[in-house]
Amino acid sequence: MTIKPEIHAVLDEPSYVETLFDRIPDVVFFIKDRGGRYAVVNQTLVTRCGRRHKNELLGQTARQVFPSPLGNRFFEQDRMVLASGIPIAQNLELHLYPTRLEGWCLTDKLPLFGDDGQITAIAGISRDLQSPGVEAGHLAEVASALEHIRSNYGSEIRAEELAKICGLSIYQLNRRLRAIFGITVSQLITKSRIDIASEMLRGEPLPIAEIAYSCGYFDQSAFSRVFRRTVGLTPRQYRARHRAP
What we know:
By secondary structure, the chain is an alpha+beta fold. The chain is built from 12 helices and 5 strands. The chain has a 5-stranded antiparallel sheet. The radius of gyration is 19 Å and the shape is globular. The model has no long low-confidence stretch (mean pLDDT 86). It holds the Pfam family PAS_4. Keywords: DNA-binding, Transcription, Transcription regulation.
C-alpha cells in the first residue's frame, strides 16, 4: 500500500501525535532537540513535572524540570542516544507518578534523523508500570538485572549470575520477568543483544563478524542463526533491507 503525499505531510506534523498522547494519562510523551531540550510534550509530562502549561517545559532539559537524581539520569540517557544513535527500548526505571512520588515505568527513546542522515532530535515515551501482582521491590530487583545486561552485553552473561545480582533464585527471577515482560531470563539476554546488533547493522558498515563479537557471540554462524530466529531475516538481509533507498 502506498501512502499518499498529503498523508505524509500530516504525519510530519508532530501536533497530531501530541494531541493523541494528551489523552493517555499513564504515558509520558516527548520530542527533544539535539541539545536535549523539550520541543514537544504531552500534558501528562507537564502535570508530572508540577507545571500547568506546556510552554513551561519547552526549551528546558530534563535536568532542569525533574528533581535530582532523576533529571540527571534522563539527561545523560538523552545524550547517549543523541551521540550513538542507539535507541533505548523497554528500559525499566523510575520516573514521577501523578502523585509526584517516584514510580516504575518502561521507557523507549528513539533518535530522529534528518534528510542528511544526521540525528536531529530524540522522541520517547515512558509508560507507567502497574502490573497486577508485581510489587515495587520486585521491579527494583529486575532493574538491577537489566542494568547488568546493558553494561555487559558483549560478555558472557549467565542466568545464575543475574539471579545472584538480584538476590533471587533463577525461578524467582523468571517469574518476575514473565510478570513484567512476558519473557524468561535467557530470552531477555537474547533480546537485549539482538536489539543492539540490529542498531549496529543499521548504522556503521562494520563487518558482521565484528558485530557478532561485540554483542557476545564468538561464533558468527551462531549469531546468524539466533538473529534469523528472532528477527526473521539473516543479519545480511536485515542490513540490506534497512539500507535500501
